Amino acid sequence: MNSARDAALAVVDCITVGGGDASYVEEAEDSGVIIPGYRVRADSEEALNALDGIIEQCDRQHAFYVNKFFQLQPKTQEARDAYLETQLPLIRACLKEHGYTTDAKATPDEVMRQAMEVRADTDNSVTCDRPGET
Asked: CB-hemisphere CA count at 13 Å for 7?
């Protein structure tokens, strides 16, 4: 995670040099994976919009690919997969409760994909892909 943290900190420095106000943050996923990132503050929506180009340039220059590799690395994927396995019974039960059947032989990814499709098809009214929020 150090390189992802370092990349996020570099984005914060870059935005600050570019005239923005940014800080380092860490977001914890339900899976336990910690995602290093940054938050940009501005006095108004207009001020934030004025920083869009700087933010995009700084992110692309310092963090975009590092973050992508961090999130796709085997250790991160394994943590997410393990968490999904624990949530699978809840996701299946939620889908069943809302009238959707799941294939008993479907992989965890296939069940999650079905739950995400249901959320999209129901305009976010059925959120089985987010078991803690249903």
From this structure: 19
Which residue bears the tokens 């499709």?
A: 117
Tokens matching residue 75: 């250790």
**pLDDT tens readout for residues 54-105:** 999 999 999 999 999 999 999 999 998 899 999 999 999 999 999 999 999 9
CA dihedral sign of residues 100, 105, 106, 111: positive
Alpha carbons 81 and 74: distance in angstroms, whole number: 10
Q: For the chain, what is the mean pLDDT?
A: 92
Q: Tokens 């069943």 label which residue?
A: 96
If you search the block for the tokens 């996701």, which residue do you land on? 91
Q: What is the pTM of this model?
A: 0.72
Whole-angstrom distance, CA of residue 117 vs CA of residue 94 = 14
